Amino acid sequence: QVQLVESGGGLVQAGDSLRLSCAASGRTFSSYAMGWFRQAPGKEREFVAASAWGTYYADSVKGRFTISRDNAKNTVYLQMNSLKPEDTAVYYCAAGNSYSVSYRNYDYWGQGTQVTVSS
Predict the structure, then answer these.
(1) Using CA of residue 29, residue 19, residue 117, residue 48, what is the dihedral sign?
(2) Contact 105/37 with Cβ under 8 angstroms?
């Protein structure tokens, strides 16, 4: 099965930027829809962004986050600008057959990377 590994999280101040990376092992990486989800303590996992035939964003991150992918490197990125304390969560990379805002429709998941934004 496909293996996904996230990196790039850390502790930053409000207004700062981070770029998360997700490296995939699959040789057919370009055929997958890729998504980013996040989960804060005590809350359910929520959709952040996805890249399929187009790009899709949650309302809470539109204009601040950008998803991109480099198929040659089997890597998907999440550029996060103007970070807010409410962005604090564990961020997960996911792969599936098609785009969805539901985490239940993705087949493969990374281990997650922590993003903490202080006020």
Answers:
(1) negative
(2) no
Write the single-letter amino acid at 116. T
Beta-carbon contacts of 81 under 8 Å, excluding residues fewer than 6 positions away, are 17, 64, 65, 66
DSSP letter assigned to residue 54: S
Residue 72 has pLDDT above 90, yes or no: no
Per DSSP, the three-state class of 87 is: helix
Dig out the tokens for 36 from the structure: 């980013």
Identify the pLDDT of residue 55: 94
Residue with tokens 């996992």, as numbered in its chain: 45
CA distance 31 to 38: 23
Q: pLDDT band at residue 71, thresholds of 50, 70 and 90? A: confident
CB 48 within 8 A of CB 101: no
Q: How far is Cα 27 from Cα 25, in angstroms, rounded to an integer?
A: 7
Could you read off the pLDDT of 79-110 as tens digits, one per residue? 999 999 999 999 999 999 888 999 999 999 99
